[in-house]
Amino acid sequence: MKKILLISLTSIALIFATSCSSDADAAICGNCGDEKGTENCCKADAEKCEKCDKNKGSPGCCKE
Ligand SMILES: [Zn+2]
Ligand SMILES: [Zn+2]
């Protein structure tokens, strides 16, 4: 049962990934992981994630 649930979740995620425009990805800054143009983007004193080195809690962060 768990495997079936996982597969359905993956396909749902895939549908979302393909239906959503790539604008969402483009809006994420590659340097800081935060949304481009926001006040947190590449902020010098922003709190960085220890694992991925992006802004902690940002959309681009691993959120570990
Ligand atoms: Zn940035
Ligand atoms: Zn992270």
Give the distance, in angstroms, between the N- and C-terminal Cα atoms: 27 Å
- The stretches of 5 or more residues where confidence is low (pLDDT under 50) are none
Total strand segments: 0
Bound molecules: zinc ion
What's the gyration radius in Å? 15 Å
Largest sheet: none
* CA-based shape: elongated
Based on helices, strands and strand pairing, what is the structural class? mainly alpha
- Estimate percent helicity: 25-40%
Helix and strand element order: HH
Describe this entry's structure for a reader:
The structure is a single chain. By secondary structure, this protein is mainly alpha-helical. 34% of the residues lie in helices and 0% in strands. It is built from two helices and no strands. The longest helix is centred in the first third of the chain and has 18 residues, at 2-19. It is elongated, with a radius of gyration of 15 Å. The mean pLDDT is 83. Bound molecules: zinc ion (2 copies).
Features:
binds zinc ion, 64 residues, single chain, 2 helices, 34% helix
Give a brief description.
By secondary structure, this protein is mostly helical. It has two helices and no strands.
Secondary structure blueprint with pairings:
Blueprint: H1 2-19, H2 23-26
